[in-house]
Amino acid sequence: MDFDWSPEEQAFRQEIQDFLKTELTDDVKGSIFIDTPERMDFVTKMADKGWLGMGFPEEYGGTPAPMPLAQFILTTELDRAGAPIIGKNVGTIGSTIFHVASEEMKREWLPKIFRNEGQWSITYSEPNAGTDIGSMQTRAVDKGDYFEVTGMKHYITSAHFCKWHWLAVRTDPDAPKHKGISIFIMDHETEGLSISPMNTLGREGTTHRTNQVFFDKVKIPKERLVGEVNKGFYYMMQALDYERFAILSFASRVRRFNNIANYYRDADFGGEKPANDPVTRHKLARMASRVEVGIMLERLAICKAQEGVPATEAAMNKAWGASIGDEMAQLGLELAGPFGGLWGCERAPFQGKLADEYLMAGHARVAAGGVDTSKSIIARRLLGLPNALGKPELPGK
Ligand SMILES: Cc1cc2nc3c(=O)[nH]c(=O)nc-3n(C[C@H](O)[C@H](O)[C@H](O)COP(=O)(O)OP(=O)(O)OC[C@H]3O[C@@H](n4cnc5c(N)ncnc54)[C@H](O)[C@@H]3O)c2cc1C
Question: Which of 13, 84, 274, 347 sits at 20 to 30 Å (Cα–Cα) from 117?
């Protein structure tokens, strides 16, 4: 397999890096989520360059792809630089609309996404439906001209800044749980929809806000149904296969590891240099090898994605990447000793980011299907081990 980048790909990468030098200002940095006006403007500048729709057909507002891996290169460079990323809007919602929605819906919604006309929330999780997402209870009842939605969601990122919800709800309560779910596009500003903040653990000042979202007989027009009724679970699973490598790249982990390694290469604690300590050296060397494996797994998933949905490779990439992110956060804290958990003072290593990364590592372990779900996929699809019902699932099935 040839892992070298072509001259065109290198040129595109350079163009993004040049853009980031001028546009990635301090008020844009700091979160991968597009949840402030400054971050929204930043993404709109990329939209104006035609980068968001790169690779999608022109009739849907896209631009002809100069290269198949353009979206991956863009995501990698944004992630490497610590910029807001576009994978949720383009990689998950845009791709699903492109693959399963009606012609009218593609023509209406894809251009809105590629022009960055508004922010989206992915509105799936409920108190009893996280990993086991098929157990969701929020109902959409067919009322003839419209559906009526009642229920609640939680942990919804960006709901306090979104224009639309990419909403999964139960449309058939009598069907087996995976067969009665549908996806809708719902306006955030709709009568009967309300939110309340649900903050998750994070460093002071950078707490990651998620939200509870409540639906009290919210009307949603029928033309907002995505694809076919009751097929939502399958659309979500397909999108998750892409999310497991399209939303985040491994680049941010490489950046974090380089930060840690560079810090300990030069650190000098009153004459004691961690770089001379064999235990520190071994721990860093072990992590360096694990980072290299992560880079290769991601490339494998990307190559396989050129042929079809890379379910197994994406699961391996997800499980490895999130576990390594977690290990790296622990290593950073461990090596920094009592100073590791500090922020907001001169002695805090890495401007106090270690504690923040440690707390956020847990999010990566459960996001996009989670590490345990990914391991189950690998067990079934790669190794052919029986599924939960005891039935063997052969590789590739
Ligand atoms: C910061 C943050 C942001 C989020 N943003 C969003 C968002 O924007 N939209 C949205 O819809 N959701 C969002 N979520 C929710 C997220 O998708 C869920 O937390 C995730 O699906 C896990 O569900 P849960 O929290 O109910 O945990 P559970 O499903 O109860 O899982 C708890 C633990 O058990 C493990 N586990 C569960 N079932 C199995 C099994 N069958 N086999 C092996 N292990 C298992 C899990 O891997 C996990 O480690 C967010 C969560 C966080 C923390």
Answer: 13
Q: How far apart are CA 207 and CA 70, in angstroms?
A: 32
Q: Which residue's alpha carbon is at the smallest distance from atom 16 of ligand 1?
A: 367
Degrees, nearest 5: CA angle 194-107-69: 95
Coil, strand or helix: which one is 331?
helix
- Percent of the chain clearing pLDDT 70 (strictly above): 93
Q: Which residues line ligand 1 (CB under 6 A)?
A: 122-125, 130-131, 155-157, 200, 208, 210, 363, 366-367, 370, 372, 376
Whether this prediction's pTM lies above 0.85 is answered by: yes
Domain that holds residue 22: 7-118
Is residue 364 situated within a structural domain?
A: yes
In the predicted model, is pLDDT for residue 244 greater than 70? no
The CATH number given to whatever domain includes residue 126 is 2.40.110.10
Structural domain tally of the chain?
A: 3
Q: Are residues 40 and 52 in the same domain?
A: yes
**Residues 184 and 268 placed together within one structural domain of the fold:** no
The per-residue pLDDT for range 61-109, each reduced to its tens digit, is 998 766 778 888 898 899 888 898 887 888 889 989 999 999 999 999 9
Residue nearest to atom 47 of ligand 1 (CA): 372
- Same domain for 375 and 339? yes
Distance CA 212, CA 200 (A): 12
**Ligand 1 atom closest to residue 131's alpha carbon, by position in its atom list:** 29
pLDDT digits (tens, 9 = 90+) for 118-157: 999 999 999 999 988 999 999 999 999 999 999 999 999 9
CA dist 24 and 32 (Å) reads: 12
pLDDT at res. 395: 43
CA–CA separation, 304 and 309 (whole Å): 8
